[in-house]
Amino acid sequence: MSSSKLLRGTFILTLGVMLSRILGLVYVIPFHPLVGERGGALYSYGYVPYQIFISLATAGVPLAVSKFVSKYNALGEYRTGYRLFRSGLLLMTITGIVACIVLYMIAPWIAPFVIEEQVKGNSVHDVVTVIRAVSFALIIVPVMSLIRGFFQGHESMGPTALSQVVEQFVRIIFLLASCYIVLRVMHGSLVTAISLATFAAFVGALGGLAVLIWYWWKRKAHLNELLAQDRGQLHPPLKEMYKELIMYAAPFVFVGLATPLYQLIDQFTFNRAMASIGLAKISEEAYSIFNLWAQKLVIIPVTLATSFGLTLIPTITKAYVADDRKSLRKYLNQTFQVVMFLTVPAVVGMAILAEPVYAAFYSYDPLGEQVLRWYAPTAILFAMFSVTAAVLQGINQQRFTVISLTLGLLIKLLLNTFLITKFATIGAVLATTLGYFVSVLFNLWIIKKYTNYRYGFVFRRTVLIGIFTTIMSIFVALALPLLEALLHYKGGRFDSMVIVVVGALIGAGVYFFISERSGLLTSLFGNRFAFLQRKKAKKAVS
Protein backbone atom coordinates (compact mmCIF):
# COMPACT_ATOMS: atom_id res chain seq x y z
CA MET A 1 0.00 0.00 0.00
CA SER A 2 1.38 3.43 -0.89
CA SER A 3 1.93 5.89 1.95
CA SER A 4 -0.70 8.27 0.58
CA LYS A 5 -3.26 5.45 0.36
CA LEU A 6 -2.32 4.29 3.85
CA LEU A 7 -2.78 7.79 5.27
CA ARG A 8 -6.06 8.22 3.42
CA GLY A 9 -7.36 4.88 4.67
CA THR A 10 -6.26 5.57 8.24
CA PHE A 11 -7.90 9.00 8.13
CA ILE A 12 -11.18 7.58 6.81
CA LEU A 13 -11.25 4.83 9.43
CA THR A 14 -10.32 7.22 12.26
CA LEU A 15 -12.97 9.69 11.11
CA GLY A 16 -15.57 6.92 11.08
CA VAL A 17 -14.64 5.80 14.59
CA MET A 18 -14.70 9.38 15.92
CA LEU A 19 -18.09 10.17 14.33
CA SER A 20 -19.49 6.92 15.71
CA ARG A 21 -18.25 7.72 19.20
CA ILE A 22 -19.53 11.31 19.04
CA LEU A 23 -22.97 9.98 18.09
CA GLY A 24 -22.70 7.50 20.95
CA LEU A 25 -22.16 10.39 23.35
CA VAL A 26 -24.62 12.96 21.98
CA TYR A 27 -27.67 10.68 22.08
CA VAL A 28 -27.61 10.53 25.90
CA ILE A 29 -28.58 14.23 26.05
CA PRO A 30 -32.18 13.60 24.87
CA PHE A 31 -32.19 10.00 26.19
CA HIS A 32 -31.67 11.03 29.84
CA PRO A 33 -34.79 13.22 30.22
CA LEU A 34 -36.85 10.57 28.39
CA VAL A 35 -36.03 7.59 30.65
CA GLY A 36 -34.61 9.13 33.83
CA GLU A 37 -32.34 7.43 36.36
CA ARG A 38 -34.40 4.24 36.68
CA GLY A 39 -34.47 3.83 32.90
CA GLY A 40 -30.73 4.49 32.69
CA ALA A 41 -30.06 1.79 35.28
CA LEU A 42 -32.29 -0.70 33.45
CA TYR A 43 -30.61 0.11 30.13
CA SER A 44 -27.20 -0.52 31.69
CA TYR A 45 -28.37 -3.82 33.23
CA GLY A 46 -29.16 -5.09 29.74
CA TYR A 47 -26.25 -3.59 27.86
CA VAL A 48 -23.35 -4.73 30.09
CA PRO A 49 -23.89 -8.52 29.57
CA TYR A 50 -24.39 -7.85 25.85
CA GLN A 51 -21.09 -5.94 25.65
CA ILE A 52 -19.26 -8.89 27.22
CA PHE A 53 -20.79 -11.35 24.76
CA ILE A 54 -20.12 -9.09 21.80
CA SER A 55 -16.51 -8.49 22.93
CA LEU A 56 -15.93 -12.24 23.13
CA ALA A 57 -17.53 -12.74 19.72
CA THR A 58 -16.03 -9.84 17.77
CA ALA A 59 -13.29 -7.91 19.62
CA GLY A 60 -10.23 -7.98 17.42
CA VAL A 61 -12.00 -9.77 14.54
CA PRO A 62 -11.87 -6.86 12.04
CA LEU A 63 -8.20 -6.19 12.75
CA ALA A 64 -7.25 -9.88 12.86
CA VAL A 65 -9.05 -10.70 9.59
CA SER A 66 -7.58 -7.55 8.04
CA LYS A 67 -4.07 -8.59 9.05
CA PHE A 68 -4.59 -12.15 7.77
CA VAL A 69 -6.10 -11.13 4.40
CA SER A 70 -3.50 -8.40 3.89
CA LYS A 71 -0.67 -10.84 4.57
CA TYR A 72 -1.80 -13.41 2.00
CA ASN A 73 -2.81 -10.76 -0.55
CA ALA A 74 0.76 -9.43 -0.38
CA LEU A 75 1.94 -12.95 -1.31
CA GLY A 76 -0.49 -13.08 -4.22
CA GLU A 77 -2.51 -15.81 -2.48
CA TYR A 78 -5.87 -14.05 -2.77
CA ARG A 79 -7.89 -17.26 -2.55
CA THR A 80 -6.49 -18.07 0.90
CA GLY A 81 -8.01 -14.96 2.42
CA TYR A 82 -11.24 -15.60 0.51
CA ARG A 83 -11.41 -19.18 1.87
CA LEU A 84 -11.10 -17.85 5.40
CA PHE A 85 -13.77 -15.26 4.68
CA ARG A 86 -16.29 -17.78 3.30
CA SER A 87 -15.84 -20.30 6.10
CA GLY A 88 -15.75 -17.43 8.61
CA LEU A 89 -19.15 -16.19 7.46
CA LEU A 90 -20.68 -19.58 8.27
CA LEU A 91 -18.78 -19.83 11.57
CA MET A 92 -19.71 -16.29 12.67
CA THR A 93 -23.35 -16.88 11.77
CA ILE A 94 -23.42 -20.05 13.88
CA THR A 95 -21.55 -18.50 16.83
CA GLY A 96 -23.77 -15.42 16.65
CA ILE A 97 -26.93 -17.50 16.82
CA VAL A 98 -25.49 -19.64 19.63
CA ALA A 99 -24.42 -16.52 21.57
CA CYS A 100 -27.90 -15.03 21.14
CA ILE A 101 -29.56 -18.22 22.42
CA VAL A 102 -27.17 -18.51 25.37
CA LEU A 103 -27.65 -14.89 26.49
CA TYR A 104 -31.42 -15.19 26.00
CA MET A 105 -31.55 -18.38 28.07
CA ILE A 106 -29.29 -17.27 30.93
CA ALA A 107 -31.04 -13.89 31.38
CA PRO A 108 -33.21 -15.30 34.23
CA TRP A 109 -30.02 -16.50 35.92
CA ILE A 110 -28.20 -13.15 35.57
CA ALA A 111 -31.08 -10.92 36.70
CA PRO A 112 -31.33 -12.04 40.38
CA PHE A 113 -27.65 -11.18 40.85
CA VAL A 114 -28.37 -7.64 39.63
CA ILE A 115 -31.45 -6.66 41.60
CA GLU A 116 -31.65 -6.64 45.38
CA GLU A 117 -35.16 -7.28 46.75
CA GLN A 118 -34.93 -4.17 48.96
CA VAL A 119 -34.26 -1.94 45.94
CA LYS A 120 -37.38 -0.02 44.98
CA GLY A 121 -37.51 0.29 41.22
CA ASN A 122 -36.81 -2.27 38.53
CA SER A 123 -37.71 -5.92 39.11
CA VAL A 124 -35.96 -9.16 38.18
CA HIS A 125 -38.53 -9.66 35.41
CA ASP A 126 -37.72 -6.19 34.01
CA VAL A 127 -34.02 -7.02 33.82
CA VAL A 128 -34.71 -10.36 32.12
CA THR A 129 -36.88 -8.64 29.51
CA VAL A 130 -34.23 -6.05 28.65
CA ILE A 131 -31.35 -8.54 28.45
CA ARG A 132 -33.39 -10.74 26.12
CA ALA A 133 -34.26 -7.76 23.92
CA VAL A 134 -30.61 -6.86 23.33
CA SER A 135 -29.49 -10.47 22.74
CA PHE A 136 -30.80 -10.50 19.15
CA ALA A 137 -28.02 -8.13 18.01
CA LEU A 138 -25.55 -10.98 18.59
CA ILE A 139 -26.90 -12.70 15.47
CA ILE A 140 -25.68 -9.95 13.13
CA VAL A 141 -22.73 -8.14 14.72
CA PRO A 142 -20.15 -11.00 14.46
CA VAL A 143 -20.86 -11.42 10.72
CA MET A 144 -20.62 -7.67 10.23
CA SER A 145 -17.24 -7.58 12.00
CA LEU A 146 -15.86 -10.29 9.71
CA ILE A 147 -16.94 -8.43 6.55
CA ARG A 148 -15.37 -5.21 7.85
CA GLY A 149 -12.09 -7.00 8.44
CA PHE A 150 -12.16 -8.52 4.96
CA PHE A 151 -12.57 -5.09 3.34
CA GLN A 152 -9.80 -3.61 5.51
CA GLY A 153 -7.52 -6.45 4.45
CA HIS A 154 -8.08 -5.29 0.86
CA GLU A 155 -6.93 -1.78 1.86
CA SER A 156 -10.52 -0.47 1.72
CA MET A 157 -11.43 1.45 4.89
CA GLY A 158 -14.53 3.22 3.53
CA PRO A 159 -16.94 0.29 4.06
CA THR A 160 -15.94 -0.09 7.72
CA ALA A 161 -16.10 3.65 8.43
CA LEU A 162 -19.46 4.23 6.73
CA SER A 163 -21.05 1.07 8.17
CA GLN A 164 -19.99 2.10 11.70
CA VAL A 165 -21.51 5.55 11.32
CA VAL A 166 -24.73 4.20 9.73
CA GLU A 167 -25.00 1.48 12.39
CA GLN A 168 -24.71 4.05 15.19
CA PHE A 169 -27.03 6.54 13.48
CA VAL A 170 -29.78 3.98 12.81
CA ARG A 171 -29.46 2.62 16.36
CA ILE A 172 -29.80 6.05 17.93
CA ILE A 173 -32.72 7.13 15.74
CA PHE A 174 -34.60 3.91 16.53
CA LEU A 175 -33.69 4.16 20.23
CA LEU A 176 -34.87 7.74 20.68
CA ALA A 177 -37.93 7.42 18.43
CA SER A 178 -39.16 4.20 20.07
CA CYS A 179 -38.66 5.57 23.60
CA TYR A 180 -40.45 8.81 22.71
CA ILE A 181 -43.40 7.02 21.07
CA VAL A 182 -43.79 4.50 23.90
CA LEU A 183 -43.42 6.95 26.79
CA ARG A 184 -44.76 10.26 25.46
CA VAL A 185 -47.24 9.28 22.75
CA MET A 186 -48.60 5.90 23.89
CA HIS A 187 -47.87 6.48 27.61
CA GLY A 188 -46.54 2.93 27.80
CA SER A 189 -44.27 1.30 30.36
CA LEU A 190 -40.65 2.19 30.95
CA VAL A 191 -39.68 -1.48 30.61
CA THR A 192 -41.12 -1.60 27.08
CA ALA A 193 -39.27 1.60 26.15
CA ILE A 194 -35.91 0.37 27.47
CA SER A 195 -36.41 -3.04 25.83
CA LEU A 196 -36.80 -1.26 22.50
CA ALA A 197 -33.80 0.95 23.33
CA THR A 198 -31.60 -2.13 23.76
CA PHE A 199 -33.21 -3.88 20.75
CA ALA A 200 -31.99 -0.84 18.80
CA ALA A 201 -28.56 -2.56 18.74
CA PHE A 202 -30.10 -5.20 16.43
CA VAL A 203 -31.76 -2.57 14.22
CA GLY A 204 -28.53 -0.55 14.00
CA ALA A 205 -26.60 -3.70 13.08
CA LEU A 206 -29.03 -4.30 10.22
CA GLY A 207 -28.24 -0.80 8.93
CA GLY A 208 -24.49 -1.38 9.15
CA LEU A 209 -24.80 -4.78 7.46
CA ALA A 210 -26.85 -3.27 4.62
CA VAL A 211 -24.01 -0.82 3.89
CA LEU A 212 -21.46 -3.65 3.78
CA ILE A 213 -23.64 -5.76 1.45
CA TRP A 214 -24.00 -2.76 -0.85
CA TYR A 215 -20.20 -2.33 -0.94
CA TRP A 216 -19.80 -6.07 -1.58
CA TRP A 217 -21.94 -6.04 -4.72
CA LYS A 218 -20.31 -2.82 -5.86
CA ARG A 219 -16.80 -4.32 -5.60
CA LYS A 220 -17.54 -7.96 -6.45
CA ALA A 221 -16.09 -7.64 -9.96
CA HIS A 222 -12.79 -6.30 -8.59
CA LEU A 223 -12.60 -9.10 -6.00
CA ASN A 224 -13.20 -11.68 -8.74
CA GLU A 225 -10.33 -10.16 -10.75
CA LEU A 226 -8.02 -10.64 -7.77
CA LEU A 227 -9.10 -14.27 -7.39
CA ALA A 228 -8.24 -14.81 -11.06
CA GLN A 229 -4.68 -13.59 -10.32
CA ASP A 230 -4.23 -16.05 -7.42
CA ARG A 231 -0.83 -17.79 -7.49
CA GLY A 232 -2.30 -20.95 -5.90
CA GLN A 233 0.94 -22.06 -4.23
CA LEU A 234 -0.27 -22.02 -0.61
CA HIS A 235 -3.12 -24.18 0.67
CA PRO A 236 -3.10 -23.87 4.49
CA PRO A 237 -5.79 -25.98 6.22
CA LEU A 238 -8.67 -24.10 7.86
CA LYS A 239 -7.50 -25.27 11.28
CA GLU A 240 -4.14 -23.54 10.83
CA MET A 241 -5.79 -20.40 9.42
CA TYR A 242 -8.13 -20.09 12.39
CA LYS A 243 -5.25 -20.70 14.78
CA GLU A 244 -3.38 -17.81 13.16
CA LEU A 245 -6.52 -15.64 13.30
CA ILE A 246 -7.03 -16.31 17.01
CA MET A 247 -3.40 -15.36 17.70
CA TYR A 248 -4.02 -11.99 16.03
CA ALA A 249 -7.38 -11.35 17.73
CA ALA A 250 -6.85 -12.61 21.29
CA PRO A 251 -5.09 -9.52 22.76
CA PHE A 252 -7.81 -7.18 21.53
CA VAL A 253 -10.50 -9.40 23.05
CA PHE A 254 -9.13 -8.81 26.54
CA VAL A 255 -8.68 -5.06 26.07
CA GLY A 256 -12.24 -4.85 24.74
CA LEU A 257 -13.50 -6.80 27.76
CA ALA A 258 -11.95 -4.48 30.36
CA THR A 259 -14.73 -1.90 30.74
CA PRO A 260 -17.68 -4.37 30.46
CA LEU A 261 -16.13 -6.69 33.07
CA TYR A 262 -15.60 -3.81 35.51
CA GLN A 263 -19.21 -2.78 34.92
CA LEU A 264 -20.39 -6.38 35.40
CA ILE A 265 -18.78 -6.48 38.85
CA ASP A 266 -20.70 -3.30 39.73
CA GLN A 267 -23.87 -4.77 38.27
CA PHE A 268 -23.61 -7.81 40.55
CA THR A 269 -22.48 -6.02 43.74
CA PHE A 270 -23.52 -2.35 43.72
CA ASN A 271 -27.24 -2.59 44.59
CA ARG A 272 -26.68 -5.17 47.33
CA ALA A 273 -23.87 -3.16 48.92
CA MET A 274 -25.95 0.03 48.84
CA ALA A 275 -28.92 -1.80 50.36
CA SER A 276 -26.70 -3.13 53.17
CA ILE A 277 -25.99 0.44 54.33
CA GLY A 278 -29.59 1.59 54.08
CA LEU A 279 -29.36 3.31 50.68
CA ALA A 280 -31.64 0.94 48.75
CA LYS A 281 -34.00 3.79 47.79
CA ILE A 282 -31.33 5.68 45.83
CA SER A 283 -29.35 2.64 44.72
CA GLU A 284 -30.56 2.46 41.11
CA GLU A 285 -30.32 6.23 40.66
CA ALA A 286 -26.72 6.15 41.90
CA TYR A 287 -25.92 3.13 39.74
CA SER A 288 -27.16 4.78 36.55
CA ILE A 289 -25.24 7.98 37.34
CA PHE A 290 -22.00 6.11 37.95
CA ASN A 291 -22.19 3.32 35.36
CA LEU A 292 -23.91 5.11 32.48
CA TRP A 293 -24.31 8.89 32.57
CA ALA A 294 -21.00 9.91 34.22
CA GLN A 295 -19.10 7.13 32.45
CA LYS A 296 -20.15 8.54 29.06
CA LEU A 297 -18.57 11.89 29.98
CA VAL A 298 -15.38 10.40 31.41
CA ILE A 299 -14.71 8.52 28.16
CA ILE A 300 -14.50 11.80 26.15
CA PRO A 301 -10.88 12.70 27.03
CA VAL A 302 -9.89 9.02 26.81
CA THR A 303 -11.07 8.82 23.19
CA LEU A 304 -9.15 11.96 22.23
CA ALA A 305 -5.90 10.97 23.92
CA THR A 306 -5.81 7.36 22.75
CA SER A 307 -6.64 8.40 19.17
CA PHE A 308 -3.42 10.43 19.11
CA GLY A 309 -1.31 8.03 21.16
CA LEU A 310 -2.20 4.84 19.31
CA THR A 311 -1.12 6.29 15.95
CA LEU A 312 2.47 5.82 17.13
CA ILE A 313 2.09 2.08 17.87
CA PRO A 314 3.05 0.86 14.34
CA THR A 315 6.31 2.81 14.58
CA ILE A 316 6.96 1.28 18.01
CA THR A 317 6.45 -2.21 16.54
CA LYS A 318 8.81 -1.45 13.66
CA ALA A 319 11.54 -0.13 15.97
CA TYR A 320 11.21 -3.12 18.31
CA VAL A 321 11.41 -5.67 15.49
CA ALA A 322 14.46 -3.87 14.04
CA ASP A 323 16.03 -3.79 17.54
CA ASP A 324 16.40 0.00 17.15
CA ARG A 325 16.49 0.86 20.87
CA LYS A 326 17.06 4.56 20.32
CA SER A 327 14.00 4.96 18.10
CA LEU A 328 11.94 2.72 20.38
CA ARG A 329 12.77 4.92 23.39
CA LYS A 330 11.91 8.03 21.39
CA TYR A 331 8.53 6.68 20.24
CA LEU A 332 7.61 5.43 23.72
CA ASN A 333 8.52 8.83 25.17
CA GLN A 334 6.32 10.56 22.63
CA THR A 335 3.38 8.16 23.05
CA PHE A 336 3.23 8.47 26.85
CA GLN A 337 3.75 12.23 26.76
CA VAL A 338 0.97 12.81 24.20
CA VAL A 339 -1.48 10.77 26.27
CA MET A 340 -0.61 12.66 29.48
CA PHE A 341 -0.51 16.04 27.72
CA LEU A 342 -4.06 15.63 26.39
CA THR A 343 -5.68 13.66 29.22
CA VAL A 344 -4.45 15.35 32.41
CA PRO A 345 -5.75 18.89 31.74
CA ALA A 346 -8.99 17.51 30.26
CA VAL A 347 -9.87 15.42 33.30
CA VAL A 348 -8.81 18.08 35.80
CA GLY A 349 -10.89 20.65 33.93
CA MET A 350 -13.85 18.25 33.93
CA ALA A 351 -13.47 17.72 37.68
CA ILE A 352 -13.42 21.48 38.36
CA LEU A 353 -16.45 22.06 36.12
CA ALA A 354 -18.22 18.86 37.24
CA GLU A 355 -21.44 20.59 38.33
CA PRO A 356 -22.12 22.58 35.12
CA VAL A 357 -20.78 19.73 32.89
CA TYR A 358 -23.24 17.22 34.35
CA ALA A 359 -26.07 19.77 34.27
CA ALA A 360 -25.30 20.73 30.66
CA PHE A 361 -25.53 17.13 29.43
CA TYR A 362 -28.30 15.88 31.70
CA SER A 363 -29.76 17.98 34.53
CA TYR A 364 -28.61 19.52 37.78
CA ASP A 365 -27.84 16.71 40.23
CA PRO A 366 -25.59 17.01 43.32
CA LEU A 367 -24.86 13.26 43.25
CA GLY A 368 -24.04 13.41 39.53
CA GLU A 369 -21.65 16.29 40.19
CA GLN A 370 -19.95 14.40 43.05
CA VAL A 371 -19.55 11.17 41.08
CA LEU A 372 -18.21 12.97 38.00
CA ARG A 373 -15.70 14.93 40.07
CA TRP A 374 -14.29 11.74 41.60
CA TYR A 375 -14.59 9.67 38.42
CA ALA A 376 -12.95 12.12 35.97
CA PRO A 377 -9.31 11.49 37.07
CA THR A 378 -9.79 7.76 36.40
CA ALA A 379 -9.85 8.65 32.70
CA ILE A 380 -6.05 9.01 32.87
CA LEU A 381 -5.83 5.33 33.85
CA PHE A 382 -8.36 4.29 31.18
CA ALA A 383 -6.21 5.97 28.53
CA MET A 384 -2.95 4.57 29.89
CA PHE A 385 -4.35 1.04 30.04
CA SER A 386 -5.40 1.17 26.39
CA VAL A 387 -2.06 2.60 25.27
CA THR A 388 0.14 0.30 27.39
CA ALA A 389 -1.86 -2.73 26.21
CA ALA A 390 -1.27 -1.61 22.61
CA VAL A 391 2.47 -1.17 23.31
CA LEU A 392 2.58 -4.72 24.71
CA GLN A 393 0.99 -5.86 21.45
CA GLY A 394 3.63 -3.88 19.54
CA ILE A 395 6.51 -5.56 21.37
CA ASN A 396 4.89 -9.00 21.07
CA GLN A 397 4.18 -9.38 24.80
CA GLN A 398 0.41 -9.24 24.54
CA ARG A 399 -0.05 -12.26 26.81
CA PHE A 400 0.70 -10.03 29.79
CA THR A 401 -2.39 -7.95 28.99
CA VAL A 402 -4.47 -10.88 30.23
CA ILE A 403 -2.54 -10.97 33.51
CA SER A 404 -2.76 -7.21 34.08
CA LEU A 405 -6.50 -7.15 33.38
CA THR A 406 -7.05 -10.12 35.71
CA LEU A 407 -5.10 -8.39 38.51
CA GLY A 408 -7.14 -5.22 38.09
CA LEU A 409 -10.44 -7.11 38.09
CA LEU A 410 -9.42 -9.00 41.25
CA ILE A 411 -8.70 -5.69 43.01
CA LYS A 412 -12.09 -4.36 41.86
CA LEU A 413 -13.90 -7.52 42.98
CA LEU A 414 -12.19 -7.70 46.37
CA LEU A 415 -12.61 -4.02 47.27
CA ASN A 416 -15.88 -3.02 45.58
CA THR A 417 -18.40 -4.08 48.24
CA PHE A 418 -16.16 -2.96 51.10
CA LEU A 419 -15.54 0.50 49.63
CA ILE A 420 -19.21 0.98 48.71
CA THR A 421 -20.22 0.23 52.32
CA LYS A 422 -17.69 2.83 53.47
CA PHE A 423 -18.11 5.59 50.85
CA ALA A 424 -21.38 4.69 49.04
CA THR A 425 -21.26 5.44 45.27
CA ILE A 426 -17.78 6.96 45.48
CA GLY A 427 -16.55 3.61 46.80
CA ALA A 428 -17.35 1.97 43.45
CA VAL A 429 -15.39 4.74 41.70
CA LEU A 430 -12.41 4.19 44.01
CA ALA A 431 -12.46 0.42 43.43
CA THR A 432 -12.43 0.95 39.65
CA THR A 433 -9.59 3.47 39.96
CA LEU A 434 -7.48 1.13 42.10
CA GLY A 435 -8.09 -1.79 39.74
CA TYR A 436 -6.97 0.13 36.67
CA PHE A 437 -4.03 1.59 38.62
CA VAL A 438 -2.70 -1.89 39.35
CA SER A 439 -3.20 -2.97 35.71
CA VAL A 440 -1.37 0.09 34.35
CA LEU A 441 1.53 -0.33 36.82
CA PHE A 442 1.90 -3.97 35.79
CA ASN A 443 1.87 -3.08 32.07
CA LEU A 444 4.48 -0.37 32.60
CA TRP A 445 6.68 -2.82 34.49
CA ILE A 446 6.45 -5.40 31.69
CA ILE A 447 7.30 -2.74 29.08
CA LYS A 448 10.37 -1.76 31.13
CA LYS A 449 11.40 -5.40 31.55
CA TYR A 450 11.26 -6.31 27.85
CA THR A 451 12.49 -3.03 26.34
CA ASN A 452 14.82 -1.77 29.08
CA TYR A 453 12.86 1.48 28.85
CA ARG A 454 13.36 4.06 31.60
CA TYR A 455 10.52 6.33 32.68
CA GLY A 456 12.60 9.16 34.15
CA PHE A 457 12.13 11.54 31.21
CA VAL A 458 8.38 10.88 30.95
CA PHE A 459 8.03 11.33 34.71
CA ARG A 460 9.73 14.74 34.55
CA ARG A 461 7.53 15.77 31.62
CA THR A 462 4.44 14.58 33.53
CA VAL A 463 5.45 16.78 36.46
CA LEU A 464 5.78 19.72 34.03
CA ILE A 465 2.35 18.91 32.58
CA GLY A 466 1.03 18.79 36.16
CA ILE A 467 2.42 22.27 36.83
CA PHE A 468 0.86 23.65 33.65
CA THR A 469 -2.44 21.99 34.56
CA THR A 470 -2.31 23.55 38.05
CA ILE A 471 -1.84 27.01 36.54
CA MET A 472 -4.71 26.33 34.13
CA SER A 473 -6.88 25.13 37.04
CA ILE A 474 -6.31 28.35 38.98
CA PHE A 475 -7.60 30.43 36.08
CA VAL A 476 -10.65 28.18 35.60
CA ALA A 477 -11.40 28.06 39.32
CA LEU A 478 -11.24 31.87 39.54
CA ALA A 479 -13.45 32.28 36.45
CA LEU A 480 -16.10 29.81 37.68
CA PRO A 481 -17.66 31.90 40.51
CA LEU A 482 -17.52 35.02 38.31
CA LEU A 483 -19.43 33.25 35.54
CA GLU A 484 -21.95 31.85 38.02
CA ALA A 485 -22.55 35.30 39.51
CA LEU A 486 -22.84 36.91 36.08
CA LEU A 487 -25.41 34.35 34.90
CA HIS A 488 -27.19 34.07 38.29
CA TYR A 489 -26.49 30.38 37.96
CA LYS A 490 -29.07 27.97 39.40
CA GLY A 491 -28.21 24.77 37.55
CA GLY A 492 -30.12 25.47 34.31
CA ARG A 493 -28.99 23.65 31.17
CA PHE A 494 -28.34 26.74 29.04
CA ASP A 495 -26.39 28.54 31.77
CA SER A 496 -24.43 25.35 32.43
CA MET A 497 -23.52 25.06 28.75
CA VAL A 498 -22.29 28.67 28.72
CA ILE A 499 -20.14 28.09 31.81
CA VAL A 500 -18.70 24.85 30.37
CA VAL A 501 -17.86 26.43 27.01
CA VAL A 502 -16.33 29.60 28.49
CA GLY A 503 -14.50 27.66 31.21
CA ALA A 504 -13.12 25.18 28.66
CA LEU A 505 -11.96 27.99 26.37
CA ILE A 506 -10.20 29.75 29.26
CA GLY A 507 -8.56 26.53 30.44
CA ALA A 508 -7.53 25.40 26.95
CA GLY A 509 -6.25 28.88 26.09
CA VAL A 510 -4.08 29.14 29.20
CA TYR A 511 -2.77 25.57 28.89
CA PHE A 512 -2.09 25.93 25.16
CA PHE A 513 -0.32 29.28 25.67
CA ILE A 514 1.97 28.00 28.44
CA SER A 515 2.75 24.82 26.51
CA GLU A 516 3.61 26.76 23.37
CA ARG A 517 5.79 29.30 25.20
CA SER A 518 7.70 26.58 27.02
CA GLY A 519 8.37 24.65 23.79
CA LEU A 520 6.47 21.58 25.01
CA LEU A 521 3.94 21.86 22.18
CA THR A 522 6.63 21.79 19.49
CA SER A 523 8.46 18.99 21.28
CA LEU A 524 5.39 16.77 21.20
CA PHE A 525 3.73 17.68 17.90
CA GLY A 526 6.64 18.93 15.81
CA ASN A 527 5.86 21.46 13.08
CA ARG A 528 2.09 21.10 13.34
CA PHE A 529 2.05 24.41 15.24
CA ALA A 530 4.80 26.10 13.26
CA PHE A 531 2.34 28.84 12.24
CA LEU A 532 2.59 30.18 15.80
CA GLN A 533 6.33 30.63 15.42
CA ARG A 534 5.79 32.49 12.13
CA LYS A 535 3.27 34.81 13.77
CA LYS A 536 5.71 35.61 16.56
CA ALA A 537 8.48 36.25 14.04
CA LYS A 538 6.27 38.65 12.08
CA LYS A 539 5.39 40.56 15.24
CA ALA A 540 9.06 40.81 16.17
CA VAL A 541 9.92 42.21 12.72
CA SER A 542 7.09 44.73 12.78
UniProtKB/TrEMBL annotation:
Cellular localization per UniProt: Cell membrane
Pfam families attached to this UniProt entry: Polysacc_synt (PF01943)
Location (main, coarse): membrane
Transmembrane segments: 12-30, 50-69, 89-115, 127-147, 168-187, 193-217, 245-265, 297-317, 338-362, 374-395, 402-420, 426-446, 458-482, 494-514
Keyword list, A-Z: Cell membrane, Membrane, Transmembrane, Transmembrane helix
Membrane topology (UniProt): Multi-pass membrane protein
GO cellular component: plasma membrane
PANTHER family on file: LIPID II FLIPPASE MURJ (PTHR30250:SF21), PST FAMILY PREDICTED COLANIC ACID TRANSPORTER (PTHR30250)
This protein's name: O-antigen/teichoic acid export membrane protein
